[in-house]
C-alpha cells in the first residue's frame, strides 16, 4: 500500500509501539504524534489519507482545543484504537462506531484510506458567518440553474458552502454573494466534499477562493 500516508495520535508506550508494529505490516507511510495538541499543525504541514487515534490518549488530553480537533478529524477517515494486551491486543473502532464493533487496521487502510485523496488543512481560521449565495457548477448557469444556499464558516482564504448537490474534490464552483457590492461570480476551488446523508452534519463543499476581486475580499474581511 505504497503512497498511503497516515497520521497516528498515541502517547509513547506499549500501545503506541503495538500500533506502529501493526501499521508497518500494511506498508503505509506512518507519522506519529504524542498529543492531539499537535494534530492541527501536523495536518497543515502535510497531506494525509487517514488518521488513527488512540482513545485513551484523547481522553487524557487536557487540551482546550478538543472541539477543534474533533472538527478537523471529521474531514478524514478515522479509526479509533484501543489496546489491551491481555484481551486480544488492538481493537479498531470506526468513528461513531460501537465498542462491540471491531475493524482491523489493514481493512481500514485498504478500504478507506487507499481510496481517500490525501489532503491537508488550512491554517487560516474561519468564523461562523452566514452569507446568502447563488451556487453553480459553471458561471454560465447563473439565472438558469443555480442553487440558492448559504456560505458559512467563512475566512479570507475560503469557506464552506451548504449544498445537497453532487460535487467532486479538485473541481471548480462559482458563487454570487448577495451581501457583497460586487456581484460578479467568485470562483471556488473545492478541496473536500460532504455528501447529503453521509453524516449528521451539514452537506456541502469546503473550498478556497480561486478568483476573487479586491473589493469582494475586503468586504469579506469586514464581515469577519
Report on this model:
The protein is of the alpha+beta class. The chain folds into 2 domains: 5-113, Rossmann fold, CATH 3.40.50; 131-223, Thrombin, subunit H (Beta Barrel), CATH 2.40.10. 23% of the residues lie in helices and 30% in strands. It has 6 helices and 11 strands. The protein has helices at 14-24, 39-45, 55-60, 66-73, 105-113, 214-223; strands at 5-9, 29-33, 50-54, 78-84, 89-94, 131-136, 147-152, 158-162, 172-177, 186-194, 204-211. The strands form 2 sheets. Strands 6-7-8-11-10-9 form a 6-stranded antiparallel β-barrel. A 5-stranded mixed β-sheet has the order 2-1-3-4-5. Helix 1 links the parallel strand 1 (5-9) and strand 2. The protein is elongated. The model has no long low-confidence stretch (mean pLDDT 87).
Layout of SSEs?
Blueprint: E1 5-9, H1 14-24, E2 29-33, H2 39-45, E3 50-54, H3 55-60, H4 66-73, E4 78-84, E5 89-94, H5 105-113, E6 131-136, E7 147-152, E8 158-162, E9 172-177, E10 186-194, E11 204-211, H6 214-223
Parallel strand pairs: 1-2, 1-3, 3-4
Antiparallel strand pairs: 4-5, 6-7, 6-9, 7-8, 8-11, 9-10, 10-11
Amino acid at each position: 500500500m505504497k503512497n498511503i500516508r497516515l497520521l497516528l495520535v498515541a502517547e509513547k508506550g506499549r500501545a503506541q509501539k503495538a500500533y506502529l508494529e501493526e501499521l508497518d505490516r500494511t506498508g503505509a507511510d506512518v507519522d506519529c504524534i504524542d498529543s492531539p495538541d499537535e494534530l492541527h499543525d501536523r495536518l497543515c504541514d502535510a497531506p494525509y489519507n487517514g488518521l488513527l487515534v488512540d482513545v485513551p490518549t484523547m481522553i487524557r488530553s487536557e487540551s482546550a482545543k478538543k472541539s477543534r480537533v474533533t472538527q478537523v478529524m471529521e474531514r478524514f477517515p478515522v479509526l479509533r484504537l484501543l489496546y489491551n494486551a491481555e484481551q486480544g491486543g488492538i481493537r479498531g473502532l470506526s468513528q461513531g462506531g460501537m465498542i462491540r464493533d471491531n475493524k482491523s487496521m489493514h481493512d481500514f487502510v485498504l478500504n478507506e484510506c487507499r481510496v481517500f485523496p490525501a489532503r491537508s488543512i488550512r491554517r487560516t481560521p474561519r468564523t461562523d458567518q452566514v452569507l446568502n449565495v447563488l451556487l453553480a457548477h459553471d458561471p454560465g448557469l447563473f439565472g438558469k440553474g443555480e442553487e440558492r444556499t448559504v456560505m458559512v464558516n467563512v475566512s479570507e482564504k475560503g469557506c464552506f458552502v451548504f449544498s445537497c448537490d453532487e460535487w467532486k474534490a479538485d473541481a471548480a464552483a462559482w458563487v454570487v454573494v448577495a451581501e457583497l457590492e460586487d456581484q460578479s461570480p467568485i470562483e471556488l476551488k473545492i478541496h473536500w466534499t460532504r455528501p447529503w446523508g453521509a453524516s449528521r452534519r451539514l452537506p456541502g463543499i469546503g473550498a478556497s477562493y480561486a478568483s476573487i476581486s479586491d473589493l469582494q475580499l475586503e468586504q469579506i474581511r469586514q464581515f469577519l
